[in-house]
Amino acid sequence: MRFSSPxxxxxxxxxxxxxxxxxxxxxxxxxxGGTPGIVLMERAGRSVAxxxxxxxxxxxxxxxxxxxxxxxxxxxxxxxxxxxxxxxVSVGFLGQQxxxxxxxxxxxxxxxxxxxxxxxxxxxxxxxxxxxxxxxxLNRPIESEARVALExxxxxxxxxxxxxxxxxxxxxxxxxxxxxPQASRTVTFARLKPxxxxxxxxxxxxxxxxxxxxxxxxxxxxxxxKLFVNGPWVWPSIPARPEEExxxxxxxxxxxxxxxxxxxxxxxxxxxxxxxxxxxLVTVASPSDALxxxxxxxxxxxxxxxxxxxxxxxxxxxxxxxxxxxxxGAGIGVITRSQVDLVLESGxxxxxxxxxxxxxxxxxxxxxxxxxxxxxxxxxxxxxxGEYSRLFNDEKEILHLxxxxxxxxxxxxxxxxxxxxKGPDTVVASPNGRAxxxxxGTPWLATAGSGDVLAGAIGGLLAQGxxxxxxxxxxxxxxxxxxxxxxxxxxxxxxxxxxxxxxxGLLTSD
Length: 510
Known about the structure:
This protein is α/β, with parallel strands linked by helices. It is elongated and about 80 Å long. Helix 11 (334-346) links the parallel strand 14 and strand 15. The protein contains 19 helices and 19 strands. The protein folds into two domains: 2-228, Rossmann fold, CATH 3.40.50; 249-508, UDP-N-acetylmuramoyl-L-alanine:D-glutamate ligase (3-Layer(aba) Sandwich), CATH 3.40.1190.
């Protein structure tokens, strides 16, 4: 199975993502279940050889760089297989072969060709390099002889097939440890790893091929992964088909809070997205100075006067208004903070975005205390990196986490709500560690107002009674698909209309 971008598989189980530790456990469970480790390594090595055969013609010259661990063992198996298929194979090895142990030593013994020290490799007339130096479990920077060799490969322009991940990419984070070459393709086993989806690892891996080496779905299920590729398999009840005898109030009533007259567009974008994803009613809560502007610009969306927290409180007296989006264009300061408090205390499902978060700059602990005190469990925050940094700038242990997955999970645990950390590899994380990584985004979404549409889409799904994690994950995926449909020249106001086509496509594919 091959993945590029977007990344997903029709078989739901193939959308599980395994950490390095979980993959190690899957190997051990498979071995303890009766499959010898060398058999798994043989299957992996043959899979590497198969991928190499798709990249270059028979008779081509292939250089395989092998390291001192199991990744190197896979490389030795691939060397033997490729040589037997008529390829001209040379092997460069890091370290001393006598230091190899276990299955990797057996694999190396099966290779009868020459083995060069890594510093002695030549790239003259080489058609393909197979990078089997280090796998996803690397936890220290690439240096000395290995780094020199990898830099030499990168400078040569020769296509690279990476085994598991490009050497130097940390498997759980996608971060580069010192140096990593750009792979033309990556082959991995059983399931994707976080590094295949998190930048910069995602870019460095190139298209990723996932090969079956005999680790069963039942084994993966026993491990119980909490990380997934985002897609309909995560939220199968979304979108919900309207009931034949239903009515608009049974589909929820979303309230979107508008800012003042100079920043009304954000709330309108959010409101339109909430309506497009299926909320039965949507109301914009507007300050008096913006009432006429909002009313004149909206036809399918209701507009009601709401000045400050007191005005918002009056609208929340109607229990049918069951979800709130607060933050887009709201303004930064005391008024927005008081509205956040009110929304949390109301027990409504809520999306807090943009100014609602920046109004708590450096006070993440204060916001967390209010969330915990009000038990606002069906709440979602949707920061981009700048808003995240401002919110957590006094929480150094959270702020300094390098990868998006770790930052989103830690923030969700700290705040006690669902976090959508936006970016090219958007992550949705819940407080219990369950998370998804988005793979269907598009750079065309990097335009003003796009995030407001996302907040509204999540809010519209919350209004329909969907749980916060599923609503957030679905909102992210639907938003990205809409962006892909619009493509070049995308403006934020194109997205609500595009959402209609995306949702229609899901409903007709049932």
